[in-house]
Amino acid sequence: MNKLKKYVASTVIFAAFLLIFNGCVNLNNKHENELLILHTNDHHGALLPYETKDGTLIGGVALQANLVKQMRNEYKNALLLDAGDVNTGSSLSNIFDAKPDILAFNALKYDAATLGNHEFDGTYEKLKMQMEL
């Protein structure tokens, strides 16, 4: 439970930091200190791309990783954030208790993430295990 409290506290502090410094802009050099915020939510186990009606593959964590890498190369100050609901979605994610999803998120080096309602679909032990990955 202590780890959960630290996680929630750090998320709240981070959000407060963003709100406080939201208006701090150097008007003389607009691009000098740009902050790019990359945001995901409602992942729901979507590790793999899927095929649209016209046969195009879209989505998936591999595409996401390429986009994140591209944006981080382009912007010195880029934050990658997730608003929760990693759990409950694909069979792959459900069978392995979202471990593949969380390990992928770790590889993407998210700066911060919060819990969504579906993180509480399982047991406390499952949530604790996921937070320790």
SSE succession: HEEEHEHHEH
Structural class designation: alpha/beta
In angstroms, what is the radius of gyration?
17 Å
Low-confidence stretches: 26-31
Overall mean pLDDT stands at 83
What is the distance, rounded to the nearest whole angstrom, between the alpha carbons of the first and last residues?
Answer: 15 Å
Can you list the strand order of the major beta sheet?
Answer: 1-4-5
Distinct helical segment count: 5
What overall geometry do the principal axes of the alpha carbons give? flat
Query: What is the beta-strand fraction?
Result: 5-15%
Protein name: Calcineurin-like phosphoesterase domain-containing protein
Organism: Campylobacter fetus
GO molecular function: hydrolase activity, acting on ester bonds; metal ion binding; nucleotide binding
Domain Calcineurin-like phosphoesterase: 37-125
Please tell me about this protein's structure:
The chain has 133 residues and is α/β, with parallel strands linked by helices. The chain has a domain at 37-46 and 58-133. 42% of the residues lie in helices and 12% in strands. The chain contains five helices and five strands; from the N terminus they run H-E-E-E-H-E-H-H-E-H. The protein has helices at 2-20, 61-74, 91-95, 99-108, 124-131, and strands spanning 36-40, 50-51, 57-58, 78-82, 112-113. It has a three-stranded parallel sheet, covered by helices on one side. A two-stranded antiparallel sheet has the order 2-3. The chain is flat, with a radius of gyration of 17 Å. Mean pLDDT is 83; it is low at 26-31.
